[in-house]
Amino acid sequence: MVASLVALMLIGATPTPLQARLQAAADAAVKAGVPGIVVYSRDGADTVSAAAGYANLALRQGMRRNDRFRIGSVTKSFTATVVMQLVHEGKLHLSDTVEQYLPGLVPNGGAITYRELLSHTSGLADYFDNKRIFAPYAGGDLTHVWPHRWIVHVSAADPPKFAPGAAGQVAYSNTGYYILGLTVEKITDHTLASEIERRIVEPLQLRSSSLPSANRPSAPFAHGYTGDFGKKQQDVSVVSPSILWAAGGMISTASDVAAFYRALFRGRLLPLALVREMQSRVVDIPGSRGRQAIGLGLFRVQLPCGTTWGHGGDLPGYTTQTFSSVDGKRQAVVVINAGEESAFTPAEQRAIGQVTQLAYCRA
């Protein structure tokens, strides 16, 4: 923390009380065990951010607020936004079925709607649970490439969790978001990456955000660490984006992610009527007692100071948490170069929770 405060003094800036508290909370998360962390907090026009720990453990390179991260399933909100833009343009309807656009891709495709894919109520199995798909990565070949349609084909052969749209049922399915990505490409005749670039990244000038095709993120980036593959704090920042893609393949920064949700919730990417449909509760998360619910490409989370919308991203090496008020006025983004979340110790979880609450509630 001392080094961070000295840096602010050298550039002529005096840390505000909130800045100092946020930096102390970030430092505490590193002391608890996370390799590095960046936290972004916004309330109206007031923006505060902090970074702590290391972006590269081997080189002892300090974390910077503009370091790029793999944001994992936060990508789903970008994919969902493009899908909703196609809905706005009349090129797709939420009640349309997968079979209408991608005939023969999945069993029972004529019964699965795009609303169900967006809200994880299709009943489709999750390719992350398929050992055949993950065998190369578990074996150490993190850059193995799978075709997107092949992943869907193999995963869709697994038994469904329930009938599409079954009342009150939810099963998180990355496979469903691959189908959404394939549908975008089918309708537009362009790659999903180019559509995200054209429709979101360029208009909002998100200069550090992309859905890459390369295995290594462009600099400056935070190296990601995990023990999921048998080695303690293994560096997994170099990985094939084919295993993440429409469900979790984007690279971004904390400030870019916040700018995206702020623009979305203020109607810059979609008419507000469609934004409110994305923010509408479709189904509650089992066991959350109503504190968490799923919308369309978004999750609702109740924090002590209010209701938030956003999405989380957990994958080997990286964890991202995003929270925005319904109008995007209040925001918090926390990114950590370790994951998945189940890998965090109780002490790390407590420290991350304290950072998150301070960043959003500012109390």
Layout of helices and strands:
Layout: H1 2-10, H2 17-32, E1 36-43, E2 46-56, E3 61-62, E4 69-70, H3 75-88, H4 98-101, H5 114-118, H6 131-138, H7 148-156, H8 174-188, H9 192-204, E5 225-226, E6 234-235, H10 245-248, E7 251-252, H11 254-265, H12 272-278, E8 283-284, E9 292-294, E10 299-303, E11 306-310, E12 312-315, E13 318-324, E14 330-336, H13 346-361
Antiparallel strand pairs: 1-2, 1-14, 2-3, 4-7, 5-6, 8-9, 9-10, 10-11, 12-13, 13-14
Helix pairs in contact: 2-13, 3-8, 7-8
Description:
By secondary structure, the chain is of the alpha+beta class. The protein has a single domain (2-361), classed as 3-Layer(aba) Sandwich (Beta-lactamase). It is built from 13 helices and 14 strands. It has a six-stranded antiparallel beta sheet with strand order 3-2-1-14-13-12, sandwiched between helices. It has a four-stranded antiparallel beta sheet with strand order 8-9-10-11, with no helix packed on it. Helix 2 runs antiparallel to helix 13 (346-361) and helix 7 crosses helix 8. The longest helix is centred in the first third of the chain and has 16 residues, at 17-32. The chain starts with a helix and ends with a helix.
